Amino acid sequence: MKSINNKFLNYFLITILLSLFNTAVYAKSLPSSFADLAEKLIPSVVNISTTQTITTSSNPFPFQFPPGSPFEDLFKEFNQPRERQATALGSGFIIDKKGIVVTNNHVIQGAEDIIVKVNGKQEYKAKVIGADPYADLAVLEIVSDKKFIPVNFGNSDKMRVGDWVVAIGNPFGFGGTVTSGIVSARNRDIGLTRYDDFIQTDASINVGNSGGPLFNLEGEVIGINTAIIAPGSSGSIGIGFAIPSNAAIIVINQLIEFGETTRGWIGVRIQEVSKEIAKLEKLDKAEGALVASVQEKSPALKAGIKPGDIILEFDGKKVDTMRTLPKLVAQAEVGKRVKVKIWRNNKTIIKTIVLGRLESTKEFLAEKETRSDSTNFIQIEDLKISVRDLNKNDILSRELPKNTTGVVITKISIDSPLKFLYVNDIIVEIQKDKIKNSNHFLTLVKSALEKEGTLLFAIYNSNNQRSYLTVKLK
């Protein structure tokens, strides 16, 4: 009986100890308050406001003067293109006491003036040190001799699903807004950038918080808040995405040092390895990146990579899916000799590639020019669309006739009368008049609206199919 009692007592004590141990663990991981952490970090989180000039055109009158009317010339100035200042808000955070600020590229893209507000009080002008649309990151410098309070980066690779995180933003310039949550998932690919590898969190990230930091409980930045899933206009529903700090640091350091990025490049077009392809190629499972084509004079071509090859490893790292390869290549050092494991003819072979630089390729330069042009758009309020000039890189990339001129649609409202058109469609004619550029298009639209109620467009759609379409506005 005594033995049984001793056994019961020992079991009881062990149970209590385990319970106390578990309680201690949970007590350690569940903070009672984020107040001390927030108080320390808020001064380093800034509000960013930008202004951009947009050219618009609209008729201030609810009618059109008939051609030849004596009032036509008198009120002509009211129908001229006008410029207005558009503003946007976002967040950022200070990483150097000299006033170096990190934010998202989409927060400052196309901005002519940038104002950074610190602590909801002091306003400073800022200049762009460098920006990278591929990773959606930008680095600014506050124009001031004042010393600021910086924050430090942490190791995002150490973050686990379920870890606590704190998001701080400054969307309206009133001061820091703090929300908390956990890491919901890792390595999320939502198709936002070429190098998606997001941390997903349920910490509320609201409109205007783009570019703000995501902290761990040590007060280190482990992510840069970039996107949310918000059906309709519902705002945050607890699904937010942040760029991991380890990936961001590489880009940020390059932007600070060079003003631009230096990414690796091998020169292949790839596609997913489906289950059917894996079966045909006698792979154990669907993995890797299938090489669809190899560019001329590229590092891959020089190394002997061929269409049909399946890249399984790059520089010792496994390529589990197609989307993994661009990330690995981009993070590799330009000029580095890298071993690539390839599946070809039912066996693995090794090739050595000397990496080139993405930013020096024709494709990158063409995209860069197109992005630059796309910020200089004209808004046609009569049609509720925005357009930019068609450029030579559009013609080259879409394989259009060399003498093609016109405009590219950059934005179209849901209530636009041109419901048959889409973003990136190209308008080349109106009323059978060839469009030279955006301003010429604006003039032709106004002239057509004054004379006729029906507009005749010639367009190239996303499949580069040319067709004529009409819309009746009167």
Describe this structure in words.
By secondary structure, the protein is α+β, with helices and mostly antiparallel strands. It has four domains: 1-30; 33-261, Thrombin, subunit H (Beta Barrel); 264-359, Roll (Pdz3 Domain); 362-472, Roll (Pdz3 Domain), CATH 2.30.42. 23% of the residues lie in helices and 35% in strands. The chain has eleven helices and 27 strands. The model is unreliable at 11-28 and 60-68 (pLDDT under 50).
CATH topology of the largest domain, which one? Thrombin, subunit H
Span from first to last CA? 101 Å
Helix content: 10-25%
Number of helices: 11
- Our estimate of the beta-strand percent is 35-45%
What is the count of structural domains? Answer: 4
The SS-based structural class is: alpha+beta
Strand order of the largest sheet: 1-2-3-6-5-4
Shape descriptor reads globular
Task: Supply the CATH architecture of the largest domain.
Answer: Beta Barrel
**Total number of strands:** 27
State the CATH class of the largest domain: Mainly Beta
For the residues shown, what is the average pLDDT?
A: 82
Could you describe the largest sheet, including whether it forms a barrel? 6 strands, antiparallel, barrel
Q: Report the uncertain regions.
A: 11-28, 60-68
Radius of gyration: 28 Å
List the helices and strands and how they pair.
Blueprint: H1 2-29, H2 35-41, E1 45-57, H3 70-74, E2 82-96, E3 100-103, H4 105-108, E4 113-118, E5 122-132, E6 137-142, E7 164-169, E8 177-188, E9 198-201, E10 213-215, E11 221-228, E12 240-244, H5 245-258, E13 264-265, E14 268-272, H6 275-280, E15 289-294, H7 299-303, E16 310-314, E17 317-318, H8 324-331, E18 337-344, E19 347-354, E20 356-357, H9 362-374, E21 378-380, E22 385-389, H10 392-397, E23 407-412, E24 426-430, E25 433-434, H11 438-451, E26 454-460, E27 466-472
Parallel strand pairs: 1-21
Antiparallel strand pairs: 1-2, 1-4, 2-3, 3-6, 4-5, 5-6, 7-8, 7-10, 8-9, 9-12, 10-11, 11-12, 13-20, 14-15, 15-16, 16-17, 16-18, 18-19, 21-22, 22-23, 23-24, 24-25, 24-26, 26-27
